[in-house]
Amino acid sequence: MNDAGTIVELRRGVRIDRGRTPLLAVDQLSLEFRTRSGIVRALENISFDLKRGETMALVGESGS
């Protein structure tokens, strides 16, 4: 990731400073759950940072 920081110009003159410090940092997140057929590994070692003004969605194989 680029830690230099950027400022994004949006419509109506709103400015968002994406800055250097993430609002949310996830490092090596893994998630398993049990089903009748066994254990399902939903996430394995997922890492990401979200900075101010960013949006992220995680969509599974089924689309939900």
Report on this structure.
The chain is mainly β. The chain has a domain at 22-57. 0% of the residues lie in helices and 48% in strands. It contains no helices and 4 strands. The chain has strands at 7-9, 15-17, 24-35, 38-50. Strands 1-2 form a two-stranded antiparallel sheet. Strand 3 (24-35) and strand 4 (38-50) form a beta hairpin. The protein is elongated. The two termini are 28 Å apart. The model has no long low-confidence stretch (mean pLDDT 78).
CA distance, first residue to last residue: 28 Å
Tally of separate helices: 0
Strands ordered across the widest β-sheet = 1-2
Give Rg in angstroms. Answer: 17 Å
- Quick one: overall form? elongated
Uncertain stretches: none
Number of strands: 4
The portion of residues forming beta strands comes to over 45%
- Mean pLDDT equals 78
User: Roughly what percent helix?
Assistant: under 10%
Topology order in helix (H) and strand (E) letters: EEEE
Main sheet makeup: 2 strands, antiparallel
Class derived from helix and strand content: mainly beta
